[in-house]
Design goal:
alpha/beta; Rossmann fold; 2 domains; five-stranded mixed beta sheet; elongated
């Protein structure tokens, strides 16, 4: 039987699978479907939003853990051999997004609180039309949750991209200022070289002392010109490498000190304006070669540095930031310590600093995504850990541990983001 009123296109998936647990003659009659072997797909006799409704029947509860919970939007529970509450608890463990419907054949739960706690929907009626209406309502609810998840993910994606582009724009401004200084010096040196060359070539200078002075001037100007152009080149190269890696999900083997140096280089102007002195410490004879995603680790460091510039110090006073790199105690990975001597973090704020959208700086343009993204990158992509130790008046210390080889898949990430917002998506 087709549902003519449910013809709009589905939100994200094109197939709506329902999991049927136990025996339910009323459900079979309503959906015009007969049970198949456990775990096999059976097509129902009607459609949902233009797509065939596919059912998977399970009579043995031991088969539930082996199923891919992400396929199912609705679980329909009939008569089961075990206690119905235990069955529903096991189903709820598949994910908070799953809609669970108790069919007429399912034993009634005694306490309403259990129904509320497990977020269950009861269908005590066996009339096919009523059963179909209940199933449609559950599917529609699942579709709404899918739309909500999609909208949330898009909002987070847009905000994350905006924050990153704003950060890149600030870096461009800073690097432009940094590059203009050596280029200005180079231009002046070039003018000296030009004038000296004209004097040497345009006149018959017989005075050896004058010729020697002009030669010295030429050498000094060329030396200044070379050093200034080399400084500008290094600044531009660092910015090119850093900005390219920020949008790259490619894995690479790099020295951790180089990743830190590139971040410091491109943020040098901002740090100087904020009056922040930065020191990087690494064992001189230690090989800190890391197999991971330097662009994403760079994003973490930039977020920490920008956080310090925004929140750690009183405006105009500045302070000190130290970054310490070393191998872990077991020698199987690395430890990065980021320390500032700023104001510190209040005890009621500290447990929430990695929560998405939590910020104490809404008035200063904070989005509350920087540390949440950093935590997500370190834990989910790099396979490490990140924690913060802080108290008011004693600065903050972020400790990041990294395995020698990053565990995640860079292809899953967009702008350093996988899944940040609390979601109704099913989790295994």
């Amino acid at each position: 039987m087709n549902g003519p009123e449910d013809t709009q296109a589905p939100a994200a998936e094109t197939t709506w699978d329902a999991l049927v647990v136990g025996h339910s003659p009323s459900l079979q009659a309503a959906l015009e479907a007969s049970p198949g072997p456990d775990g096999q797909v059976v097509d129902a006799g009607w459609q949902w939003r233009g797509q065939p409704l596919r059912l998977v029947w399970v009579t043995e509860l031991g088969a539930l853990p082996s199923l891919d919970s992400r396929r199912f939007k609705v679980a329909l529970v009939g008569g089961t051999a075990g206690p119905v509450q235990a069955v529903c608890e096991q189903l709820r463990g598949l994910g908070s997004r799953l809609r669970i419907v108790l069919c007429a054949e399912a034993p009634a739960l005694e306490a309403d609180a259990t129904v509320d706690a497990l977020d269950l929907l009861a269908c005590p009626c066996t009339e096919p039309q009523v059963v179909r209406a209940v199933v449609r309502a559950a599917l529609r609810h699942a579709d709404d949750l899918c739309l909500l998840d999609t909208a949330r993910s898009e909002i987070v994606r847009q905000m994350t991209l905006r924050e990153r582009l704003e950060g890149i724009a600030a870096m461009v401004t800073g690097i432009t200022h940094d590059v203009s200084t050596p280029l200005g010096v180079a231009s002046t040196a070039g003018s000296v070289v030009d004038e000296t060359a004209r004097r040497l070539l345009g006149a018959d200078l017989k005075d050896e002392r004058v010729r020697a002075e002009l030669g010295d001037d030429m050498r000094d100007a060329l030396d200044i010109l070379t050093r200034s152009l080399d400084r500008a080149r290094r600044l531009i190269d660092s910015f090119k490498q850093f900005s390219a890696s920020q949008f790259s999900n490619e894995r690479a083997k790099v020295q951790l000190a180089d990743v830190v140096t590139d971040c410091v280089m491109v943020l040098r102007s901002e740090l100087r304006r904020a009056r922040i002195a930065l020191e990087v410490h690494a064992p001189p004879d230690e090989d800190l070669r890391w197999d991971g995603f330097p662009g994403h680790l760079g994003r973490v460091l930039v977020n920490l540095l920008q956080n310090s510039m925004r929140y750690a110090f009183e405006p105009g006073k500045g302070g000190k930031v130290s970054i310490h790199l070393d191998r872990s105690v077991d020698g199987e990975g690395f430890v990065l310590q980021y320390v500032d001597d700023g104001k510190g973090i209040e005890p009621d704020v500290l447990p929430r600093i990695f929560d998405p959208f939590f910020t104490t700086g809404k008035g200063s343009g904070g989005t509350g995504l920087g540390l949440a993204i950093s935590h997500n990158i370190v834990v989910n992509l790099l396979g490490g850990t990140i924690r913060c130790d802080s108290s008011p008046g004693h600065g903050a210390t972020f400790v990041i541990t990294l395995p020698a080889v990053a565990k995640g898949d860079g292809g899953q990430y967009v702008n350093g983001l996988q899944e940040l917002m609390p979601s109704t998506r099913a989790t295994a």
